[in-house]
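User: Structure tokens for both sequences below?

Assistant:
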Amino acid sequence: PIEARDAARRPVIVVPESLEINGARARRDLERALPPEARTLDGLDDAALCVLWLSRERGLLLLAQEDENTPSGDRFWGPYVRSLPVETSCAWALDDSTFERTLREQVLANADVTTTYEEVAPAFRAETARARRHVEAVSRGLSGDYGTFLPGVTPESVAWALGVVSSRAMGGDAANARLVPLLDLVNHDAARAPFTSFDVVEYNAVERMRRNDDPDDEVDEAARRVDGDDWTLWSWDSGHRHPVPLGPGDELCANYL
């Protein structure tokens, strides 16, 4: 268990920047794999680069499973890719009957909704149809441009990667999208604090979690909000007022909004 006092003094999870999958990392890895005659990656934003990178990583793992002579099964990112869901849960990926059932359940479960299912459903259907067209266009485009040069990159693998990036990426928008392994397993809860970041090189993390060099003092808001390279999850409430103790089996949550 993590008592409130301990939750106030140190983060629950720290993910170093070196494990962040961002546009720069994706571009670097992809450029190493692409031959000179391949289409340039210029023009792709960070989200698209991460989608193409993830599509290739998953494709290589699947090829290795099908052919034991393919030396791709021990890739560094293999454990992370295997931890991701096999099927995306995005609305555009659901079949029509599952989509309608899920939509009805969500509308009826929301006590604040004053309109009926029949009133709101058309707008959700239209938005989902628009998203499907976008996914199909991106999947065909990326696989068509790079699939010849990147084994495992297919319309199906790109669509899967797009679902992962669109539902799990940090950064706020497509121009700054990045995947943070481990933290992207944390679910959303508006009552909890958002992710923060700071540099954990050497003793910086410890010093930034103390005030006045007092090892028994609680971390203050400035220390918890300090910006840096590495990602952290603190067990605090959404207002950063009170640490939240954790017991065995408790779910780790963060405010994604």
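Moving on to the next sequence.
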Amino acid sequence: MSSSYDHAITVFSPDGHLFQVEYAQEAVKKGSTAVGLRGDGIVVLGVEKRSVPKLQDERTVRKIHKLDDHVCMAFAGLTADARILVNMARVECQSYRLTMEDPVSMAYISRHIASVKQHFTQRPGLRPFGLSALIVGFDYDGSAHLYQTDPSGTFHEWKANAIGRNGKTVREFLEKHYTDEIAASDEACSKLTVRALLEVVQSGGKNIELAVMRRGKPLEILDTKTVEKLVEVTEAERDAEAEAKKKAAGKS
């Protein structure tokens, strides 16, 4: 049935589907995994880095982008679409700052990005953006936020979330391990983000990109050596935890 209703973005199928939007969501599922986590005084973004050709400058392949001094975004899906959306969001951040003389709130910029996406699902001659985004940052009152938007134009706030390939697996891992105690510790938030990515990334720290932003401080994208050290510590703690569970099971 889909072949009769997926030629135009504005045409619903009889059972209420917009197939072009659903196809865009499939593009997201094929993208690199991205993880976002919100702590009490920190927000963390982690993404799976795919291998690049030997002669390509890997600095030109970025999945984490700074939108304003207090806002950054990671995405899963089409990189070319993300570049356009990032530029739109940056212009809106600066326009808001110029008009209101205040930085944008996290809810405002997330709603703006979602509205742009929704606009592209409702106009003939356009197609949906083929990406989902995790938007993190701090409001003027110091509160941390994590929002997620998808190709349909919806947005929600989360404590922790994952998008992209194996996003469901990573999200289930976060649901099991995210606690208020972890949210209270900056180091624990970073470790949990890395550990979540290690559920789907097999080659360790060299294929993980990690960015952290602490309250009142600028965005920091961690270098490869720092990430690899964090991965080593996280893997050691994970192995120790698994060994302790095995011993406990043996005693029982």
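User: Anything stand out in the second?

Assistant: The mean pLDDT is 92.
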